[in-house]
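We include this case.
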Amino acid sequence: MVRALPSFIHSVKLPPVPDTQRIAVVSPLWTAWVHRLLRGALGYAEARGHFVLREFHLPRGFGLSDRTLQTLRKWQPHGVICHLEEQELRRLMHALRQSAPVVNVGATRPQPGVTRVTGRFAMQAEVAVRHLRHQGLRSLALLLLEDLAEQQAAFVEVFQRVARPSHTATATCCEVVSPGLLDNPSSRVVPVPARLAAWLRQLPKPTGIFCPQSGGGGYLIRVCHALGWRVPGDLSVVGVDDSDVCLASEPTLTSVLVSGEQVGREALRQLERMIRREPGIPELVRTDTMDLHVRESTGSRPAEVCDIAAALDHINQYACVGLSVERLVRETQHVSKVTFHKHFQAATGQSPGRAILQRQLDEARRLLAESKLSVTAVAEQCGFGSSSDFARRFKLTEGQTPGAYRALHARG
């Protein structure tokens, strides 16, 4: 359930909304996923036209005297997008003295004044289970490796519902493991925790295991090697890591990853609302857009995979130069148009054609508000066939003509 942030956050007298908003992107990780997160935020910023984004790399366990943190404070951002864990987020909020609204994309508990944007575990589990079933595996299991008591029960309940394992009582295991063993893909796992080893030994072979913690999939593969089991022969493993971690595993790790581009766009959209102090800001926003990257840890049978993140990025870049759905499928996918349409609709809640049109209209609104181009020129620059087609589509969406929208924005 989505809940609005407490009203007291909006009751303090705040300065007017700046014309250009400085946005800090903060993370201790420089993975490919974080770069895609930044790319999604930049795509949204480019469409809106009044943001300046800057990256700040804070190390794990940073202190209040950290030089990068001091630089961040001096820069005085109007908003912050961060990918931080619980204690790191609290430390950042204390350092900023809550002078700027914050959107966090990491898995943390609710905090006043912070909106969280993350993926939906049920969708992540569904994609992983569907892939493991596609590999012919009938025995499925879930391994949790972090001490998140509030989430463990929910994760187990969702997995049981999605996977419907035949051995319900033993299909899940929760084993707290040191973060250092998860973060370092080369760390030694011997001795293997006794409870984890016992749980793995009682699983039927072959079994497909989904591990939804960062670094957990690679850790599990190393555990299997230590116990003398084959991956994927005895156990198949699906993780949630980015390509840099997945490719460091032996064999390489199949992963289900929340779309970084989609999270980045949604994070900046919510942050803009917070900066503008709009009512009804949600505490939690979830996205269903998932990317499945099939690698060696689940075998070589090809899967019906749609690269939704690549499609969204392509739409963001080329929608305004006459991009068709056929060209979008041809240049970003390896599945049929019908299959792509089905998966795109399920992941984003709209058709590919609608997503292309929405990007065109976003750019049109920006040009009408910020430039002196004629309506005909705006229609041409945004990829519409004619000014009349543009005017018709714009009025259907906005409820007013392009000229009326420009006049209203000028008065505002």
Remarks:
- The longest helix spans residues 352-370.
- The two ends are 34 Å apart (CA to CA).
- Residues 1-13 have pLDDT under 50 and may be disordered.
- Residues 73 and 96 are 6 Å apart (CA to CA).
